[in-house]
Write a structure and sequence with these properties.
The protein is α/β, with parallel strands linked by helices. Helix content is 50%, strand content 16%. Bound molecules: adenosine-5'-diphosphate (ADP) and magnesium ion. Magnesium ion is lined by residues 12-13.
Length: 183
């Protein structure tokens, strides 16, 4: 299967929908599966998901032709079933605006911004699925068409140049560490 992951607001569902249609892939949305199977509870901040159960269900539900989408992807797939993973990244300054529009709570926003700044999803994808299969793309100030084109090329050719991302450096330079890590 192919995977598109990344923190909320990085652009996963937008590009996954387009790519699934374009390439004839079967789109599987991790959150939707979790909710429909009754293994996700609406927690205080986000979905509380039983990761073990979800992994079993997704093992059955996915195939070679699957495009799996969701921020939980690195934690709920069997490594040997994965061909390639795209981790979408976006500047915390841009994400902050998206979270405001989505009316995320202060805590949910801070958690996701901190995770993006530290690159946790990218790091965990490399750790759990492997360096060679992992490619990150920065969607900040990029058009949707451009991002779709880059991912399509990766999916077709099997490799590509990924982006360098170091939000921590940018945030510290701007002296915004306190703003994003208030606790
Ligand atoms: N290059 C891009 N790629 C994907 N989405 C983008 C891009 N630029 C802007 N967006 C916008 O980003 C917002 C968040 O996208 P969405 O697909 O909902 O993210 P996610 O599924 O990761 O939460 C949407 O309003 C989308 O139109
Ligand atoms: Mg989404």
């Amino acid at each position: 299967m192919k995977i598109i992951t990344g923190n909320p607001g990085t652009g996963k569902h937008t590009v996954a929908g387009i790519l699934a249609k374009k390439l004839g892939l079967e789109l599987v949305d991790i959150n939707q599966v979790a909710i429909s199977k009754g293994i996700a509870k609406k927690g205080k901040q986000a979905l509380d998901v039983d990761v073990k159960k979800l992994k079993k269900i997704l093992d059955k539900k996915t195939s070679k032709n699957t495009l799996l989408v969701g921020h939980l992807a690195p934690y709920v797939v069997s490594k040997n079933k994965v061909d390639v993973v795209v981790v979408l990244r976006r500047s915390p300054y841009s994400l902050e605006r998206i979270y405001k529009k989505r009316e995320y709570s202060k805590q949910k926003s801070i958690e996701n911004l901190g995770s993006e700044i530290l690159g946790i999803t990218y790091y965990d994808t490399i750790k759990n699925i492997g360096r060679k299969k992992t490619f990150q793309f920065d969607t900040t100030n990029k058009s949707i068409a451009d991002t779709v084109k880059r991912i399509e090329s990766l999916f077709v050719k099997g490799k590509t140049r990924e982006d360098n991302v170091d939000w921590l450096k940018i945030v510290s330079k701007k002296r915004d560490l306190k703003r994003f890590f208030p606790y």
